[in-house]
Design goal:
Helix content is 40%, strand content 20%. It is α+β, with helices and mostly antiparallel strands. It binds one RNA strand through helix 3 and helix 4.
RNA sequence: GGAGAGUUGCCGGAGUGGUCGAACGGGGCGGUCUCGAAAACCGUUGUACGCCUCGCGUACCCAGGGUUCGAAUCCCUGACUCUCCGCCA
């Protein structure tokens, strides 16, 4: 959520942000409603002050044995007037609130303008591996090694679902444990495991709602949602709280399945494990003091990179252009890992700084050193998602005979075997 | 799923229609005392919005409605927590 005062003072900044992010928020209507609401609030406050003052005098008049019928008469009409103003006030308040929820975060300075095509590579690590034999892609490797079964998964759940089998299931579980342990031991994250089903308020807190309602699985009976990422539940862990200064900064690592309808994206890069409705992910979530958030953003990108490096996977780091940035994010880096069999870079991590945007929505504050209550900053990033890491790993570490060498860092999680 | 109890400020906990933003206790902070600390004593201690901005006004006692001139206090609906019973991984 963007501070209404900020919108009031710099509406052009917001018009610009809405345009660059290809959003539809109506800034002019917001300004209009805001002004109306404040006028009504002013009138209401004054009438209310009058009512309270007179009201407190009534018992005294009664005690003194005076006739209060005239005062009562006036109070009655005052009460009527107040009632109608308070109705208008709450109507305009509600409209303002729902309009404010449609305003996206403002892209940070220096973020490239334009759509996906303007995403900018900032660095890369390693290089595309050369093979002296004909490489196979994920699907071929999966068949040879019995790693996953898409047909049978579709039978149970439909297209876009996966069933990992045998060694594939073991490898996937190894990846999850490896990711979690890595962040906990090497980067000092605190492990957390929050619910996978959350309510509407929680989805609104991190900014998925109202915009992305159609992209999420919804449970009608209870009006609950399956989380698309554990960012949602973990960020809302502190919703509505004022955290003591000593608690910050807080860093969580969380494993969860992620559920995405991917409405409208059928046929787009969806071969094998590339784009699925349910996948596993280890997420990093941070609650930090405002002045540190951009440093923390860089740190988190490195935290995610460390994993790819430990697995010996070539990748590049890209800063997202305004049009590719998510609704709530001010600045996002994507990690794209090289998948030699598929012949593409695949997005395996997205690390974002939300500044105080989510904190305002979810009402997460902290008491600063000076005793003042302030909104904190939230960040999160994948570290990492398994399906595409899985693809890059098996394609990068494949051998001529179709077997897969396990990268050393992962061997402790797979019975210390060298070959999967 | 059934029955009951509860939800008040940083915490505990009063308050059942009228100067209640809220007694009292604890904690925190400041001060007196002390070489220093403890004890004791004194003071102070919520968030947000608005305006005629170092002051004043308003809102907030789980949430949303209602009754009333007036509600933390009465009524309705809902959420959550706890206890017991049932069911169950």
């Amino acid at each position: 959520m963007i501070d209404i005062k900020y919108i009031r003072n710099s509406p052009d900044m917001l018009r610009e942000a809405v345009k660059n992010k290809k959003e539809k928020a109506d800034i002019d209507r917001i300004l209009e409603i805001d002004e109306l609401r404040r006028k009504l609030q002013y009138d209401f406050d004054n009438l209310r002050a009058d009512q309270k003052k007179t009201s407190s005098e009534i018992p005294q008049l009664k005690k003194a044995g005076k006739d209060v019928s005239e005062v009562m008469e006036r109070m009655k009409s005052l009460a009527d007037e107040l009632k109608s103003i308070s109705t208008e006030l709450s109507e305009s308040g509600n409209e303002l609130d729902s309009l404010l929820l449609t305003v996206p975060n403002i892209p940070a300075e220096g973020v490239p303008l334009g759509g996906e095509e303007n995403n900018l590579q900032v660095r890369q690590w390693g290089e595309a591996k050369k093979f002296n034999f004909q490489t196979r892609d994920q699907v071929e490797l999966a068949e040879i090694n019995d790693l996953f079964d898409l047909k049978r998964a579709a039978k149970m759940s439909g297209s876009g679902f996966i069933t990992y089998t045998g060694k594939g299931a073991a490898l996937e579980r190894a990846l999850i444990n490896f990711f979690l342990d890595f962040h906990i031991k090497k980067h000092n994250y605190e492990e957390i495991s929050a619910p996978f089903i959350v309510n509407r308020e929680t989805m609104t807190g991190t900014g998925q709602l109202p915009k992305l309602e159609n992209d999420m699985y919804h449970i009608d009976q209870d009006d609950m949602f399956l989380i698309p990422t554990s960012e949602v539940s973990v960020t809302n862990f502190y919703a509505g709280e004022i955290l003591p200064y000593s608690l910050l900064p807080k860093k969580f690592a969380s494993y969860s399945p992620c559920f995405r309808r991917e409405a409208g994206s059928y046929g787009k890069d969806n071969k094998g494990l590339q784009r699925v409705h349910q996948f596993n992910k280890v997420e990093m979530v941070r609650f930090v003091q405002p002045e540190t958030s951009y440093d923390v953003l860089d740190e988190m990108v490195h935290d995610a990179e460390d994993i790819l490096q430990a697995l010996g996977l070539h990748y590049r780091v890209v800063v997202l252009a305004t049009g590719d940035l998510s609704f709530a994010s001010a600045k996002t880096f994507d990690l794209e890992v090289w998948a030699p069999g598929t012949g593409k870079y695949l997005e395996v991590s997205s690390v974002s700084n939300f500044l105080d945007f989510q904190a305002r929505r979810a009402n997460i504050r902290f008491r600063d050193n000076d005793g003042k209550v302030k909104y904190l900053h939230t960040l999160n990033g994948s570290g990492l998602a398994t399906p595409r890491s899985f693809i890059a790993l098996i394609e990068t570490w494949q051998n001529e005979d179709g077997t897969i060498t396990i990268p050393e860092a992962l061997r402790p999680y797979l019975g210390n075997r060298e070959i999967l």
